[in-house]
Amino acid sequence: MPDYILEEIKDLNCEVLVIGSGAGGATVGYELSKAGYDVLMLEEGQSVPAEKVPYTLSESFLKMWRYGGMTLAKGNTPVAYAEGCCVGGSTEINSAIFQRPPEELISKWAEIYSINDFSPSHLSPLYDQAASLVNASRTTGQLGAHSEILRRAGELRNWEVKPLDRGHKNCVGTNHCSIGCPTGAKQSMSNSVLRKFIEHGGRLISNCRVEKVIRSEMLVRGARAQVTSVEGQNQIITVYAKHIFVCGGATQTPILLLKSGFNHGIGKGFRLHPTMRVIAEFDETIDAQKSRLPLYAITEFSPDYRIGGSVSSLPTYGMFLAEDWGARSHMLPSFANMTMYYVMARGTGLGNVAKIPFSKHAAVKYQLSLEDWNNIEVGLQNLAISLFESGARKIQPSINGMKAWHSIDEMITAISYGLPRKKCNLMTIHMFSSIRIGENPKLSAANSFGKIWGMKNLYVADASLIPESPAVNPQASVMALALRVAKNFVQKEKSKHSDEPFN
Ligand SMILES: Cc1cc2nc3c(=O)[nH]c(=O)nc-3n(C[C@H](O)[C@H](O)[C@H](O)COP(=O)(O)OP(=O)(O)OC[C@H]3O[C@@H](n4cnc5c(N)ncnc54)[C@H](O)[C@@H]3O)c2cc1C
Ligand code: SF4
C-alpha cells in the first residue's frame, strides 16, 4: 500500500467524499468507485504498509491506535475501549475474525427500529460479498495449545464450540495482528478492499483529519480538513463534494457530525460489548505468545455472552498484570504457561457520544445494564469452571484487589457476594449504534439506508449503523451495512437520473 500523502495539496473537488478508511469507509469507497463515481477518501491516520509495521506494541499504539490506545467510556464502571487511527482503520490492528450476527437479532432490529429491507435474506448476500472481499476462511494447520485448551474446555462441558473464520490469505501465525500484520497475510482494508478501491480510480489522502462538514440548509457542500505533511507541518484544505459519506467509526463519526451542527439523534444509542479478561496458568508449557489468538469460541450462551481467547503476548500480559502490579507481578516469569481468555457480554446497556467544547476528543459514556453485569458474572464463573476442569492451576481475573483463584471452590467463595463492580477492569474493542437507522425519526439519526435525516446528500456508513450490539465480532456487519448503503445510493442516483428529461 503506497503512502498517499500529497506533497502540496490545494483545495480539492470530487463527486463523492468518504471520510475515514476503515471497514466502513474502505468498503463504501470501493463499491462507489467500482460503480464509476469519482471518490476521494480522507484518512486522519498514516499509511503503515506491511514493511513498515512496527515491531513493538508500544510503537504501534503511537502509530496505529487512536490516542495511543488510551480511550475510556465513562459510566457506572468505566470501560477502556480501543480503535485504530491509520489507513485501514481498526482493521489494521484487529484479529480479522469474521462473524455474522444471529438472524433473530437482525429480525428484531428491523422490527424495533422500522428498518426497511433489513431481513436476514436481504443481508445475507451482502455478508457473502464482504466475506469474499476479505477472503474470510478457516485457518488450517496447527492452531496451538492456546486454541485447543478453549475447545477442550467447552467440549468437556458439552457446550457448543465453534471455529472462527478470519479474513486472511496464508497467515503464518506471527501473533502480531494487534501491532499490524508484517506479512500482509491479514486481509485488513489496506491489504484488500483499499487496493481494489485504488484500482478502480479511487484517491486516498492520509494524515488528513476532517474537522468540519460544510452545510448549507439541506445540502452538504464539502468539508474542511487539516493535512499534516511528512515534515509535520499542518495545512487546512477544503474539499468540495456532491455527496459525503462519513465513516469515522462509532465514536468519531458522531463527533464530526455534532461539531458540524447536526444534532438530531446523533451519538444516541451508543453500545459496546463489555468484556472481562482472565489469565489462566497451566502446568504444561503453552507458549501462547508464539501462536495466533484462539480460533474457537464457546458460543453455547450466545447471544447473551461469548467466551473466547485474547491476544496473548508479553506486552498484553504486562499490561494486564500492571493493572494491580503489586499483587500480580510475580506471575510474569510463568508467561510460557499462561494464556488469556475473556467473557464478552452482548451489551444491553446504553451510552452516548457527545462533543467536548474546544476539544477534538469525544465524551463517550456507557452504563452497563443489570443484564450486562449478570452476563459477565455468570460468564466469568463458567469460564473459570471450564478452565479449571481443563487443567488450569490458577486463574487471575481482571479485578483490582482480587487474588488469583486456585480452584472452583475458591472462585465461588471469592465472588459469593457478586462481582465488586467498581474494581472490575472492563474493556472493549467493539463499539457501535451511535447513528441509529430506521424509518422512525424519533428512534433514529438516519433513514434505513444511512442518509442523515433532513439532509439530501449526507450519509454514514460505518459501525455507528449497527442498530444494537451484535453479540459477535462486528467487522463483517460494518462491511455488509456499508455495501448496503452504497448499493442503495447507486440505485437511487440511477433512478433519479433516468427520470431526468434529455435536453
Ligand atoms: C484491537 C481490535 C481488535 C478487533 N478485532 C476484531 C475482530 O477480530 N473481528 C471483528 O469483526 N472486529 C474486530 N474489531 C472491531 C472492528 O475492527 C471494527 O468494528 C471495525 O473496524 C469498525 O469499522 P469502522 O469503519 O466503523 O471504523 P474503523 O475501522 O475504526 O475506521 C475508522 C477510520 O476513520 C478515521 N477517522 C475518524 N475520524 C476521522 C476524521 N474526522 N477525518 C478523517 N479520518 C477519520 C479513523 O482514523 C479510522 O482510520 C477489533 C477492533 C480492535 C480495535
Ligand atoms: S497472525 Fe501474523 S501473519 Fe497472521 S494475520 Fe496476524 S499478523 Fe499476519
Task: Characterise this structure.
The protein has one domain (12-494): FAD/NAD(P)-binding domain (3-Layer(bba) Sandwich), CATH 3.50.50. Helix content is 27%, strand content 23%. The protein has twelve helices and 23 strands. The strands form six sheets. Strands 1, 2, 9, 10, 11, 12 and 23 form a seven-stranded mixed β-sheet that branches. The protein has a four-stranded antiparallel β-sheet with strand order 19-18-13-22. Strands 16-17-14-20 form a four-stranded antiparallel β-sheet, with helices on one face. The longest helix has 25 residues, at 475-499. The radius of gyration is 22 Å and the shape is globular. Residues 168, 171-177, 181, 183, 185-186, 292 line the site of iron/sulfur cluster.
Write the layout of secondary structure elements.
Blueprint: E1 12-19, H1 23-34, E2 39-42, H2 57-64, E3 71-73, E4 79-81, E5 97-98, H3 103-112, H4 120-133, E6 136-137, H5 145-156, E7 161-163, E8 165-167, H6 193-199, E9 203-205, E10 208-216, E11 219-228, E12 234-246, H7 252-259, E13 268-272, E14 275-282, E15 296-298, E16 305-309, H8 314-322, H9 325-328, E17 338-345, E18 350-355, E19 362-367, H10 370-389, E20 392-397, H11 408-414, E21 426-428, E22 431-432, E23 458-460, H12 475-499
Helix pairs in contact: 1-6, 1-12, 4-12, 5-10
The structure holds flavin-adenine dinucleotide (FAD) and iron/sulfur cluster.
